[in-house]
Amino acid sequence: MTLSERWWKPPPAYLCSPALGRLGERGTQEAVPQAKARKEAKGREVARRRIPRTACDCLFVVQERKSQSKSLDIPQETTPSVDQGPAAQHHLGAWVSRVRAEDRKKRSLAGLAPGLVAESKTEVGEGSRSDCDTPDMVREWVSDQNPVRTDDESGCQSSGQPGGLDSKTKDAKNSLKFVTLLVALIPEFLFLGAGVQLQDNGYDGLLVAINPQVSEDQNLIANIKEMITEASFYLFNATKRRVFFRNIKILIPATWKANNYSKVKQELYEKANVIVTDWYGVHGDDPYTLQYRGCGKEGKYIHFTSNFLVNDDLTAGYGPRGRVFVHEWAHLRWGVFDEYNDEKPFYINGQNQIKVTRCSSDITGIFVCEKGPCPQENCIISKLFKEGCMFIYNSTQNATASIMFMQSLSSVVEFCNARTHNQEAPNLQNQMCSLRSAWDVIADSADFNHSCPMNETEFPPPPMFSLIQAGDKVVCLVLDVSSKMAEADRLLRLQQAAEFYLMQIVEIHTFVGIISFNSKGEIRAQLHQINSDDDRKLLVSHLPMTVSAEAETSICSGLKKGFEVIRKKFSTDGSEIVLLTDGEDNTISSCFNEVKQSGAVIHTVALGPSAAKELEELSKMTGGLQTYASDQAQNNGLIDAFGALSSGNGAVSQRAIQLESRGLTLQNNQWMNGTVLVDSTVGNDTLFLITWTTQHPQILLHDPSGKKQDGFVVDTNTKMAYLQIPGTAKVGTWSYSLQASSQTLTLTVTSRASSATLPPITVTSKMNKDTGKFPSPMAVYAKIHQGSSPILRATVTAVIESVNGKTVTLELLDNGAGADATKDDGIYSRYFTAYDTNGRYSVKVWALGGINAAGQRVTPQQNGAMYMPGWIENGEIKWNPPRPEISKNDLQGNQVCFSRTSSGGSFVASGVPQAPIPDLFPPCQITDLKAKIHGDKFINLTWTAPGDDYDHGRAHKYIIRISTSILDLRDKFNESLQVNTSDLFPKEANSKEVFVFTPENIPFENGTDLFIAVQAVDKSNLKSEISNIVGVSLFIPPEAPPEIPTPSPPCPDINVNSTIPGLHILKIMWKWLGELQLSVALG
Questions:
Q1: Angle at which helices 555-567 and 615-622 pack, to 10 degrees?
Q2: Domain range 766-856+893-910, CATH architecture
């Protein structure tokens, strides 16, 4: 059966309900023939009932639940299945077109905006209605500017009508208000995430990019299409008819043969939502999502290996690829986390029972020891946490949740919600999201806050795919030469940075043109292809050498002239423009439409304090980089900005990698000394560049063997010298010494990968957003990886420079605390709160790997789909093919010595008050609290110290509260019992805190569960959010009847997970003679 044949058939019966999870919370579901249901429902009050119409041509009648444990009964025989032949098929395309045409007529008659559907009548009793269909609900939505929150947690009780306006509504005023509100919301919900737009319930612009290192395989493209097509329908049902995938772009590598693919426009590999590589690293073939922020925050990308996409044997363990994609999409889009835990597969619940970490708890299975099935007690006593003892799940289940736990189960069709969520399980979802269910987090997303389910008669069309491929790279430099460029050596620095870009950064075979502008644009060089160093030098000769007498700046004139140059040889689609300006321009918005329609990517470089305020809008709307360079030449900001413009679609082995960037103002023949590490992953095309402001300095450079390097090419006009190291630079420490007087020197070192097959160590840095409004903190992130493997224990420093020239230095950490969401994932993070003025701030990151740094292959906690080793079928274990094992060499941390610098772009701050700036920043939330018991009364707590301002400085005090109810502690923290902390004094941020206390004024006896949380308070009495909640359990078994013991060694230690996320290992030391000592150790 072909993919299209499978798509056009109706879904299985268990997927017929568009609100399966919500209805399941209230009652069982019974499928009945449509005509009979309508007849019985007509003229009758149906309190708290809803009869949705779906493509399955069946109805689900909700009946009151008589028992919380009653299972879902969904007869299969009443609904056409996917295997019942052509007679059961619907030609969905024609059907959808007809429904959409009918909907357009309804909208036209009701005067509604597109996307809103007005029904003339309901087909159920008076007691059942559409979710958002009453004028009162419309007025409430308009007044609140948010959907009404109801029992399905997303603003609409049922799938009803999007927007929910009844056609009988004659309140024109309310209708007008609603349409006005919709128009106001469109910009907010269309552009959510990196290029993905949500409109009329469909996602457009999803970008899947295949890495240039992946060998050409057309099956890979076919399987990507099949995966996302399957995922679209699965997602539509899992989200209760809210969202689906409509338009997807697949970026084909330029290394593959041309095959009538469309040309890229503004799509870049680096901005892809999904990447496909042959880099296996610590994850093997496991699909995963890079999540570097907290709960409810979007991730960076979904990662698949090409083997996962073409090797069908792997689907036995992961499940159908479409289901896996939905699991990963929830990570990426909505910031939810996994509900399983490979490291802590078991825990003790509130009744001191051993439970399996799962969600929902209704999923069944059996314990399996090394030799086969075994009783739970045997597994617990002997090898609970040792290799060979596991829990294998039944292949046939009644449970419908959860996708974030085990998407591979055929019965799983929804996310865990408030009814099915397992709050006790020690998984990342509970730890990161304060015990909230995945559906609760998803329902709070912007996607859901501004949309309702699709009309019940509508069904999503299959996704449409566009195959795109980058053609010739085309770049045009558009450079400001207005009179203000004469200030602060700006023209000189422009020449130095642009020459550096042309000689070293831009890739071979690129077409480059040059434009200068003031009040009008001027062509300085038509497009010229770089095939040799002579071509590079020719382009350098066309750089502007003087400034204009005009002070006026017209950015649009420069851009239009750039488009003109490009169009003489190519379409502007996929071309790049590097726009540098230092001047004010209030007319920049006049060419926004032309820029959008051009298909070009515009990278903006704001130079000095007065560059046009709207400049960054050009890079935002085209997906380009936005950078800022101050007039402080010693910070080397302009060269860093141009150095960050390496191709976004080329192979990483061809990109220039910056090893060093440093500057210093010297006096009285002072020396600027330093070293640069050249590691084994780089070394080709290595360049040392020195710039100065007045006269040529003395330059000394020695390679790792101590040999002096001569041959610097000196350009006295642009005041720079550079040395290209022939071949591959020697691995090791290169040393330099520069001497000068009364001038500023800078040093920049770049290199390229030493091998096309060995991924180089790369550092990419960014801020969490492009704009910051005081007192909201910014967060800076630096990702350090080699391929897909994280580099750990590096020393990472960020320097943030304001428009005033003031710099703030931050040490970035990968410790899982503060701004860092996950420990040891190779993403180093820190909050920034040291605002000193409004305006632009630049970001620069240094990373140094020395004796402590390692390419750690010990797998960090990943966020991705679980692989099942086997299933229980008819009482027998059916083992799945084992996953390809990762080489033991890859699991060992190898020492890595390296140095890198990276531009993190820029951001714009607003709302910063005049000095003195008030303290409005609280301590950050503690997210790594752990607890254990000593003896039968002492509780030991550990956590990473927050600061006075988020993760900086020192908090003033801690508030520790305890409760026997985990939910009361979370929801009524201030009412819970407080622990005496008079002798607890906070340490400096990111230090390790330890506190031991004895519970008082609360029962703490055998069988007691105690839950603990911490809150930090600063000197201004600003309080952090409460920490993750941890728990300890006191369990003393009854004494056995006296008997004469036989000689026997003590029982082995037993490790059992405790109840709360993040936690907690229950370590039982069972000594002979019945003495039992229990403690909880985390880690």
A1: 40
A2: Sandwich (2.60)
Largest Cα–Cα separation, the chain = 106
What CATH superfamily classification does 472-635 receive?
Answer: von Willebrand factor, type A domain (3.40.50.410)
Task: Give Cβ neighbours of residue 663 (< 8 Å, ≥ 6 apart).
Answer: 633, 634, 635, 636, 744, 745, 746, 747
Q: Which residue has the higher pLDDT, 509 or 132?
A: 509
One fold for both 766-856+893-910 and 930-1034? Answer: yes
pLDDT digits (tens, 9 = 90+) for 230-269: 999 999 999 999 999 999 999 999 999 989 999 999 999 9
DSSP assignment of 346-383 = EEE-TTS-EEE--SSTT--EEEEETTEE--HHHHHHHH
* Alpha carbons 697 and 744: distance in angstroms, whole number: 10
Please report, to the nearest 10 degrees, the dihedral formed by the alpha carbons of residues 634, 640, 643, 647 taken in order.
-170
AA letter at 137: M
Q: Are 929 and 943 contacting, i.e. CB atoms less than 8 angstroms apart?
A: yes
- Indicate whether 227 pLDDT > 60: yes
Q: What pTM does this model have?
A: 0.78
Which tokens belong to 566? Answer: 């490009």
pLDDT at 853: 63
DSSP conformation letters of 897-926: -EEEEEEEEEEEEE-PPSSSPP---PBPPP
Report yes or no: 501 and 641 within 8 Å, Cβ to Cβ.
no
H or E stretch at 674: strand 670-678
Query: Is 216 marked active-site?
Result: no
CA within 13 Å, CB half, 90? 21
Whole-angstrom distance, CA of residue 340 vs CA of residue 515: 56
The side-by-side arrangement of strands in the sheet containing 365-369 is 372-373, 365-369, 390-393
CATH of 656-757, one of 2.60.120.380, 3.30.360.10, 3.60.15.10, 3.90.79.10: 2.60.120.380
Contact partners, residue 755, CB within 8 Å, separation at least 6: 653, 681
Q: Which amino acid is at 748?
A: T
Q: Which of 987, 983, 978, 981 is nearest to 954 (CA)?
A: 987
Strands 626-629 vs 601-607: parallel, antiparallel or unpaired: parallel
Query: Distance (Å, rounded) from C-alpha 475 to C-alpha 132?
Result: 50
Q: How many CB atoms lie within 10 A of CB 563?
A: 20
Instruction: Catalytic residue, from 298, 328, 616, 993: name it.
Output: 328
Task: Label residue 634 exposed, middle or buried (CB < 10 Å: 0-12, 13-18, 19+).
Answer: middle
Q: How much of the chain is in helix, strand and coil states, percent to nearest 5?
A: 25, 30, 50
Domain boundaries, the chain: 193-471+865-882, 472-635, 656-757, 766-856+893-910, 930-1034
Which CATH fold topology does 930-1034 show? Answer: Immunoglobulin-like (2.60.40)
Beta strands 713-715 and 365-369 are unpaired
Cβ 421 vs Cβ 358: under 8 Å: no
- Count of Cβ atoms closer than 10 Å to residue 718 Cβ: 20
